[in-house]
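Anyone up for a design puzzle?
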């Protein structure tokens, strides 16, 4: 069983911070393990006081929903899925988890091989900005947000692509 290591968390935070400084967008970054428990959290100077809570909640949400189904590869898909089916359930999930469920861009799972080992959340910019920072950090560190051997059924992949299209997201492809 693989685990997300604190050294990987620190490197991810450093890479996101590097990109955030370049973009002049202060953020908070959170990383959780596969069960949604906090491993690392950092708030940049000048980031909003609530951004650490949002970043941690984003990471928790991805860990929770991704562990349930490959249908939820990131926060944007989770958001669109609930928007179409049952927005009230999403509100209820946030309430019964003490506000830990937040869906937005800037969050995704982290895989080592085929195993989900954790998730990250970034908060402080727009969803697109948070996503840009995440992509930069993942590429710089060679972290995967999908399993190496993706066994997601084709009909689920098609459904996820449809959710991206409906949400107006052209930057995400399976």
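Challenge accepted. My sequence:
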């Amino acid at each position: 069983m693989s685990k997300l290591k604190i050294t990987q968390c620190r490197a991810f935070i450093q890479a996101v911070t590097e990109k955030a400084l370049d973009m002049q967008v202060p953020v908070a970054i959170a990383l959780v393990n596969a069960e949604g428990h906090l491993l690392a959290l950092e708030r940049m100077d000048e980031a909003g006081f609530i951004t650490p809570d949002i970043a941690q909640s984003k990471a928790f949400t991805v860990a929770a929903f991704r562990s349930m189904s490959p249908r939820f590869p990131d926060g944007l898909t989770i958001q669109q899925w609930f928007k179409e089916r049952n927005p009230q359930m999403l509100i209820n999930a946030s309430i019964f988890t003490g506000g830990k469920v937040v869906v937005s861009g800037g969050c995704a799972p982290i895989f080592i091989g085929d195993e989900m080992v954790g998730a990250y959340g970034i908060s402080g910019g727009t969803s697109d900005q948070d996503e840009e920072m995440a992509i930069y950090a993942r590429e710089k560190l060679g972290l995967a947000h999908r399993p190496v051997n993706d066994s997601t059924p084709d009909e689920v992949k098609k459904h996820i692509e449809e959710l991206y299209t409906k949400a107006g997201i052209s930057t995400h492809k399976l």
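A detail worth pointing out: The chain has six helices and four strands.
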